[in-house]
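**User:** My hope is that you can spare some time for a protein that puzzles me. As I understand it, each token names a local backbone shape. I would be glad if you read both lines and explained how they fit together. The protein I mean follows directly.
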Amino acid sequence: MSKIRTIYATNYSDMKLGGQKSMISLLENMNQDEFELHVICPEEGELSKRCREIGCKVHFHRVWSRRPKNMIKRIKSYYEFRRIMHENKIQVLHSDNEFDSFIYGRRLKSLNAKQLWHLRVAFKFKYDHIIQENADAIVGISESMKARISETNYHKYRTIYNGVDTDKFVPLDENQKLEIRNKLGMDDSFSILFVGQLKEGKGLYDLTGAFISLCKNQSNNPVKLYMLGSEIDKGIQAKLEAEVTKEIPEFKTSYIFPGHSDSIHEWMQAADILILPSHEGVEGMGRVLFEAMACGTPVIGTNIAGIRDAVTEDIGYLVPEKNPEKLAEAIEKMRMDNTKYQEFKINCRKRAIEHFDIKIHARKISEVYKELANGETNV
């Protein structure tokens, strides 16, 4: 039986964003006895290297914007794309970036291949209606993604939650946790962890406000806040640090920016809680939530589309967005109620395994690939 030939198209070359991490996790867990996996990248980089390591065939191709100066590049890009598709006899193209999905959907009309459009963000794109008409199947990472789809295309849509490697993101016993905390330079303070892009839409000013409130209401340093990630909004780290220094100068050393890390699982294993205080429209779901859950680390998130799919009342708390006061209250409840906290830890791991295991995600995506390759367009 011949393998189904698929190609995953991405417009990134690094692996710092959640979408690319999800892509690699998926490809790592696809059955290569059933699928011949190809990837399109814009250029050589960390992502293409990792794709080769897991057995994918890598092609370089870039989608150019419709600016007049890019006309020649766009023509060359079109023919290069057709060559890649024809020479490798690709049956299914998988894309998640909206602009790329728009372009590829139009190009596939004259090719014998199907398109899977993967929705990872909640906000609408101006060409959504065209992309969904051209796509043969649509997958969203949370139930809230369906709001982007017109009723006439509901038959193409299904929700498939992102997955996490539950063999890597695992809970630690107390001795192991202490060892990791020492390695990361963490002390025995109650540790709050944020992981993600450092930008305003992630609710970082709300998180800072909550942290300041907690410190002001305690005679001793009650918590330490670790904000792990790369700066997207230029100067935001300096602004956040300045606010802490101004309001609670005695606690400024408890407000820590470790930067980007390749050991996210260790930070999540070491932390006491993880917080994702994003604003509406910023998250598709937030993979850091179920990564933390798989480590047995309770979570607090804002009550917005996507996050509310992941955070249930038995594993953590949902709070209103843009509300530092409610966020501080949730942190304090988590810190002070040890009985509830221990229940959360157990339930987090259980929920991650049952709903967010990468093996489940890969199996469900595999089913879509097979249906498309077999001509079943109404998946």
About this structure: The chain has a mean pLDDT of 92. The CA atoms of residues 296 and 345 lie 5 Å apart. The two ends are 23 Å apart (CA to CA). The chain has 14 helices and 13 strands.
